[in-house]
Backbone:
């Protein structure tokens, strides 16, 4: 493994390791919930959708006894079911009650915040413009809070054709894992069309998404290529690739070191490495070791911010003593 080298030697190929990277507090909490539930109740524990969008995490939990289902009616009546970090709609919650399921809600608290904002704005008679990707689990859950009052906008171009009942009563909310720059452009266009548009009381894009994107922006002028560790269905991981490319540097999303094409590294002297918010750190370390074997002998770190956010366990596990078992940590 390469050692951190603040200077490096002339001509030496360098890895620029970005911090923060990898697991955010919501992902840590969601994985902990599944592991604690398996420890307390034993398998099988059913998880609606993937607990987080990373195939390594999902496979490890599956091996431990967690069963991922697309919809909760695939779980036996009365079973114990965990809602993923991305949240669910009220319709899913109602169906869980009807089937007598024992629910543990691992929805990220920052996603729950967006749900509560949607409920409040809908009650006050607003049309909610939900900025996000309509095929993402998080957007489906938020949309379900007020489907009659909500319209989805994915791009700046969508704003031009947007129809609302009352242009004087419009607000916007966002998916938590979007590109900061792209969202800023969409919001600017919305303000042009609806000058009185209401915004959420606090930024919806989560702290971890913002921090990882800022780290990529900081690294772009200093690297020739960026490798992002993360799964293809991870929205925040894909945004890191986009952010880097928009800053003029090629970037690739890889699940692990095996997916790196050596051709990408031809004529690359400095490769930056980061990880999406649902990617385990051991995959990053394996990638660093692989790059070292490929001739990248110097390791430098670029740290833009310390993260110390932690979330409490959901109420369903409030009785669990502290540190009941070894659990994931960033």
Residues:
């Amino acid at each position: 493994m390469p050692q951190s080298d603040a200077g490096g030697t002339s001509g030496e190929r360098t890895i620029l390791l970005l911090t923060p990277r990898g697991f955010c507090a919501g992902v840590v909490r969601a994985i902990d919930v599944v592991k604690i539930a398996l420890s307390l109740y034993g398998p099988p524990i059913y998880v609606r959708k993937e607990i987080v969008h990373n195939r390594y995490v999902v496979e490890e939990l599956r091996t431990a006894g967690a069963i991922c289902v697309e919809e909760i009616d695939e779980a036996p009546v009365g079973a114990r079911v965990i809602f993923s970090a991305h949240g669910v709609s009220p319709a899913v919650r109602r169906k869980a009650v009807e089937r007598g399921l024992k629910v543990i809600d691992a929805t990220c608290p920052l996603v729950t915040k967006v749900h509560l904002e949607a409920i409040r704005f809908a009650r006050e008679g607003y049309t909610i413009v939900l900025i996000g990707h309509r095929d993402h689990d998080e957007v489906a859950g938020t949309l379900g809070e007020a489907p009659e009052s909500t319209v989805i906008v994915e791009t700046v171009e969508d704003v031009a054709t947007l129809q609302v009942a009352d242009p004087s009563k419009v607000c916007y909310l966002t998916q938590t894992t979007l590109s900061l720059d792209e969202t800023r452009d969409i919001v600017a266009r919305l303000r042009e069309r609806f000058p009185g548009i209401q915004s959420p009381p606090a930024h919806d894009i989560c702290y971890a998404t913002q921090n990882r994107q800022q780290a990529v922006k900081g690294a772009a002028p200093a690297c020739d290529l960026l490798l992002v560790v993360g799964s293809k269905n991870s929205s925040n991981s894909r945004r890191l690739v986009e952010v880097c490319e928009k800053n003029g540097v090629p970037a690739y999303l890889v699940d692990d070191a095996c997916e790196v094409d050596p051709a990408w590294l031809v004529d690359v002297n400095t490769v930056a490495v980061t990880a999406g918010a649902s990617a385990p750190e051991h995959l990053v370390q394996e990638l660093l070791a692989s790059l070292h074997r490929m001739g990248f002998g110097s390791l430098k770190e670029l740290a833009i911010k310390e993260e110390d956010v932690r979330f409490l366990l959901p109420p369903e596990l409030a009785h669990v003593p502290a540190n009941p078992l070894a659990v994931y940590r960033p």
In short: The first strand starts at residue 13 and ends at 19. Residues 1-10, 323-330 have pLDDT under 50 and may be disordered.
